[in-house]
Amino acid sequence: MIPTRKLQLRDIIVMSAISIVFGILYLIWIFAAGLLSGVIGPMGGALLSGLWIMACIVCAYIIRKPGVAFMGEMIAAFTEVLIGSVSAGSVLLLGFAQGIGCEVVLALFLWRRYWLPILMLAGMGGTTANFITSYFVSGWSQFSSSLLMIMLGTMLISGALTAWLSKGIADQLARTGVLNDFALGREKLQQQREESNRGLRAN
């Protein structure tokens, strides 16, 4: 059955807080990508492209409700614009596309499976959406077919690896106990109880 639970206030607060932090980081990463692209060309942005889907992966993995990946990414994009991005239109468009790309993958699993392979697929969905959008709005259509294929492959790998990193960050947060009221925190608590019970039975 598809989850129909609405977002609660605490979900919105935590999602917003996480996304704002990533929105600030996104702006910093823009400058890093610009420097790298100045050295190795458009591949610089492709290598780092996965960094811009971290908000949607972290938020979705923690809260596990429909729409969280998309909303988290849009909040991060709006934050990026508000604190100083000079290209508001493209930032918001890319944020929209990346959020949709991640959300669609999670929707295919009815927002009920948040295993690492699925999160990595969601990350790849986000960077694929980035690639398609950039092709039409950022002049990538001028690149050769071979370069575009290499860039797409690089972005897919970047999205998968960044999703793996995002899961690790969220798991570390969950271990502190601050996420016990959320789906991820409850899952970790259940795992701890099961491990404790197995230990007692073994003794």
TrEMBL record:
Pfam families: ABC_cobalt
Spans traversing the lipid bilayer: 12-33, 39-63, 68-86, 92-111, 118-137, 143-165
The keyword Transmembrane helix is annotated on this UniProt entry: yes
InterPro entries hit by this protein: ABC_thiamin-permease_prd
Keywords recorded for this protein, A-Z: Membrane, Transmembrane, Transmembrane helix
Domain of life: Bacteria
Record-given protein name: Thiamine permease
